[in-house]
Structures are given as structure tokens and as C-alpha cells.
Fold this sequence. Notes:
Blueprint: E1 15-21, E2 27-33, H1 35-44, E3 48-51, E4 56-59, E5 68-75, E6 82-88, E7 107-110, E8 113-116, H2 124-127
Amino acid sequence: MNWLDAVKWDRDGLVPVIAQEIGSHDVLMFAFMNREALARTAELRRAVYWSRSRKRLWVKGEESGHVQQVHEIRLDCDNDVVLLKVTQLGHEPGIACHTGRHSCFFQKLEGTAWASVEPVLKDPERIYK
Length: 129
């Protein structure tokens, strides 16, 4: 059996993926992969995702330069979520979010409102020019 056959793909042929920074254990982002993206990620040791909006493979960092070097690929107990242990490259500290922040999870519920609790490390206008 091919290792990719163990993954429980959804009806669209996708699996949710969490990218976690190997040193800090910060959850950097959430995305999706199709079979080809997961196979390429394993081969390249660099994160490759499936862009649902663009309907194509998306190599993390192809536009921004904020590459994710993959150290480990894990599968959860139900075989339906992938966890990537990564080093976020391209800027110190690493930027994973298209908003120019370290993590996509920068909003925190404070009372009854969402507050941005992590700084913008680089203006997105300068990242995606």
C-alpha cells in the first residue's frame, strides 16, 4: 500500500494541514493539500499546498520568499489531518502569514472583540510587489 493511500482525503481530494514551527511550537498556518501537494512536500522537504481559490498547487514562498522547510510530516489518529513541523525561512523572525505576521493566528478574543496581538513584521505591500 502506498503511504498516500492511508490518508483520508475529503470528497474534493483534500486534507487539512497545520504548519507548526519546530523550535517555538507556534502554529503558523492552516491550509489544504491534495495528493500531489503532499507527495511533492515529502519529496522536496518544502511545503507545497493546494490553493482552493486559485485551483492550483502553491509552493509556500513562491511569491513572498517565506519558504517552509519541512522537518517532519505527521498524520493524526484518524488519518484525516496532516501536521508539518517546519522552519519558517525568508525573514527573521519567520513570516508565515500573508499579512506580514509570524503566524496567521494573530487575533485573540478579548472579551467580546477580536484583537490583533502580534505585530506586522513586514508590510504586505513590500512582500507582494
